[in-house]
Amino acid sequence: MEVIQNKSIFDSVNSSMSKSLSYSNYRELVKTLVENNSTSGLDKTEANINYTMLNDKRMKRWDKTIKVSDEAKIRLANFSGEVTWLVITESWCGDAAHVVPVINKIASLHGGIDLKLVLRDENELLMNQFLTKGARAIPKLIMIDKVTQQVVSTFGPRPSTATKLVDNYKVEHGVLTPEFKEDLQRWYNTDKGQTIIEDLLQLLGV
């Protein structure tokens, strides 16, 4: 795993960690936003409010249906470290609605993984340290070694296969069309979180 060392990263991680949420608290936040016809983030458009409502339903479904194979559980048990997974997200983000519940599922199966979530627009300094090709793309998982307090790796905003699909489409078409975004949602539903699980196991080195 690549070790990332930088004082500004260290400071921004610690600052954001102090105001982080557990997964259950994050789910409660999203539920409350839906009840209040609102959304997280600075851009409280009607579209983002609708995405938050849709994503709440997606996360409820994933929380109930994600399956982790026995093989994956054995590999996960081989991880002997202690890490914090600090995840940058927002309630309106479609990728986050599919990815974050899987991250939570894996974290819940290992006592050495401490999952914390923060909102992108409330943690600008942190987000700007972990851009993807210059973009403030989410969800973004930052893995921090609890012993050294160093950032050792990152994951996101999309699982590996979805990233290839997006990159190839951008090369061919320039921008992501609404039709492609629908195809991407179907890919998530068909994959059932299995690529994310594999990517996370590789992140842990198991």
Helix content: 40-55%
Shape: globular
CATH third-tier fold name: Glutaredoxin
* Biggest beta sheet summary: 4 strands, mixed
Q: H/E order of the elements? A: HHHHEHEHEEHHH
Strand composition percent: 5-15%
CATH class: Alpha Beta
Spans of 5+ residues with little confidence (pLDDT < 50)?
none
Give me the Rg, rounded.
16 Å
Query: Could you give the order of strands across the largest sheet?
Result: 2-1-3-4
- What number of structural domains do the residues give? 1
Give a structural overview.
This protein has 206 residues and is α+β, with helices and mostly antiparallel strands. It has one domain: Glutaredoxin, CATH 3.40.30. Strands 2-1-3-4 form a four-stranded mixed sheet, with helices on both faces. α3 runs parallel beside α5 and α7 packs antiparallel against α8. The longest helix has 20 residues. The protein is globular and about 45 Å long.
What topology does this entry show?
Blueprint: H1 7-17, H2 23-35, H3 46-65, H4 70-77, E1 83-89, H5 94-108, E2 113-119, H6 124-129, E3 140-145, E4 151-155, H7 160-173, H8 178-191, H9 194-204
Parallel strand pairs: 1-2
Antiparallel strand pairs: 1-3, 3-4
Question: In short, what is this structure?
Answer:
The chain is α+β, with helices and mostly antiparallel strands and 206 residues long. The protein has helices at residues 7-17, 23-35, 46-65, 70-77, 94-108, 124-129, 160-173, 178-191, 194-204, and strands at 83-89, 113-119, 140-145, 151-155.
